[in-house]
User: Which sequence fits this backbone?
């Protein structure tokens, strides 16, 4: 039994040593990436200095043209959207950015599935794991989502386990490119998708997501950042207006603007504006961005 314990202890020490040795390697890969999502996220979290930041899911990354916003609003702008993510991730990114500076404005694209409705919140943590040890401000997010994360995050290999191939590719030959974080989509819907009817569905809202939305509102107001929520068009959408009820209540309680074009027939009946039912193409994004600039200017001057 003693021999077994000694061998087991030595094995554990070897594994721990290898795991610890991986940390500077992975940190190097993150900080020296040539492009792709790795460089994009590292810039957002550690280097942004722009006046206007755009937060939100893929509907943010594809729908808001920072060049048009810069030209019209006379503010520097960066698109910080990330596919398949919502407030669990973006509140963490905000806390990291806030350590360096307070943006003048954050434009937040609200996507119900990722920002309001109940789902598996552990899927939003990978985008924060790189910086767990460097930013104690974000550790509580992990614990609130999954109490076991405080133990898992002790392992370097766990923090990077789902990103290793991406890290390698982004250091050798990045496959994705963007400009000021913006990734316009090309092409038009090649078929006629069904109309989205959702008028009588009972929605189950996520209390943790609503908690972090309110924390974002409170922190932005405390540090002098103008926060504007928005919902861009969805093709052939007739979803009930009640789906945004929590965000409308939050905005009313704190005096936050909500620019809602989710059901705007000016856009959502025009097939040439959409790559698919959920995402606008470049033509649609540019048209939509131009259309909301007047609204943004009004709120920014308040």
Assistant:
């Amino acid at each position: 039994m003693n021999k077994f314990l000694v061998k087991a202890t030595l094995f554990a020490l070897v594994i721990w040593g290898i795991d610890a040795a991986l940390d500077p390697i992975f940190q190097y890969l993150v900080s020296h990436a040539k492009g792709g999502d790795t460089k994009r996220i590292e810039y957002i979290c550690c280097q942004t200095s722009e006046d206007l930041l755009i937060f939100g899911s893929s509907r943010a990354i594809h729908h808001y043209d920072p060049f048009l916003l810069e030209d019209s609003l006379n503010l520097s702008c960066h698109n910080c959207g990330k596919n398949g993510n919502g407030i669990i991730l973006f509140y963490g990114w905000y806390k990291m950015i806030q350590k360096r500076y307070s943006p003048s404005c954050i434009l937040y694209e609200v996507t119900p599935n990722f920002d309001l409705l109940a789902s598996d919140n552990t899927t939003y943590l990978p985008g924060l794991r790189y910086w767990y040890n460097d930013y104690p401000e974000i550790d509580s997010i992990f614990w609130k989502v999954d109490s076991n994360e405080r133990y898992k995050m002790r392992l370097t290999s766990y923090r990077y386990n789902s990103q290793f191939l991406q890290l390698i590719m982004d250091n050798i030959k990045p496959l994705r490119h963007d400009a000021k974080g913006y990734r316009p989509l090309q092409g038009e819907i090649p078929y006629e998708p069904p109309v989205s009817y959702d008028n009588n569905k009972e929605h189950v809202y996520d209390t943790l997501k609503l908690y972090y939305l309110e924390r974002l509102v409170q922190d932005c107001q405390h540090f002098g950042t103008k926060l504007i929520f928005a919902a861009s068009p969805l093709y052939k959408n007739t979803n009930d207006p009640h789906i945004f009820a929590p965000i409308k209540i939050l905005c009313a309680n704190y005096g936050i603007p909500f620019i809602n074009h989710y059901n705007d027939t000016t856009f959502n009946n025009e097939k040439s504006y959409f790559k698919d039912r959920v995402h606008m193409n470049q033509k649609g994004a540019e048209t939509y961005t131009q259309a909301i600039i007047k609204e943004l200017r009004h709120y920014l001057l308040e």
